[in-house]
Amino acid sequence: METTMMLFAALCLSIVVQIQGHSWSRWYDRDDPSITGDWETVADMRKTHYICGGCKPIGAECRVKGSSAVFTRWRGSAPNKLAANCLPTKGVICRNGEQDPTSYCKDYEIRFLCPSTKVETGPYLDRDDPSATGDWESVSSFRTTDNNNICRGVRPLCTLCRDKSNKTPYYSTGDKFNAGLACGWDTGLVCTTEVNGKYCRDYEVQFRCPVIGTCPTCARWTNWLNRDSPSVTGDWEHVGPTGHNPCNSHEPIDIQCRERSTERPWDQTGQVFKNKCTPSEGLVCVNADQAFGQACKDYEVRFLCP
């Protein structure tokens, strides 16, 4: 009986691997501990190359360099207090100033789980020629200014960016990009002369959209989830070990948030939010942040899983 169960478990594991097919990157250690700490950030890594081929990492594992003890956002723990606890979209950050007086940050390394989710790949697009202000190839600009509803309103899973004239990847051009818009997989690219300190090159971008459906590698929406009714402190529909884990410890591709009773979108309720409906953090409304005499409404969320 025990042998049969072991064979069944192995078969199930094999099926899961075949269905999910996601793959791990190499281990990264871009920073040695310094006076300030250890900074293994996704933003810094993406200044020199693509991670996951320009796609959003959907998982991460971290460890002290040379150790076999692995921890993630969801399990295990680090020997230090971390400012970013092995987050797939942020990395791992340890600040010496946040440790005990006699402790210093260890040297960490991180690897990323890259998605094999089915995507629709569009052509390279160039909506904006460089001007005195810069070059604007962002998802929001395509949608709001050009009425081009990139990925049918869903967040792209991957984005590739390059110099239009010579096809050089964005990270090799020498330009500097606006925070959160350095060829972000779900935001696109913006280079302003204010940030760059000079005229920006003319960039083009390619978006790869998750295919939503029932095929083995398709992305899928969860049901609407409501883990918390408004309480003394507020409404907490957050992602993390104490909140939602909607995609089986994988990073969600997208999120939708709404008021439960009216189905009104979260950003049309007039309330103030601590977590503003992001796939990595979810949605959090705190009563103390609202206008005098008001309390948070009851919200529900759903996630697009890879």
UniProtKB/TrEMBL annotation:
Against InterPro entries, the record matches this protein to:
CILP1/CILP2, WxxW_domain
Secreted found in the keyword field: yes
**Which keywords label this protein?**
Glycoprotein, Secreted, Signal
Q: What is its main location?
A: secreted
Which compartment or compartments is the protein found in?
A: Secreted
| A cellular component annotation (GO) from this entry | extracellular region
One Pfam family per UniProt: Mucin2_WxxW
Tell me the superkingdom of the source.
Answer: Eukaryota
Name of the molecule in the record: Mucin-5AC-like
Could you read off the lineage of the organism from its UniProt record? Eukaryota, Metazoa, Spiralia, Lophotrochozoa, Brachiopoda
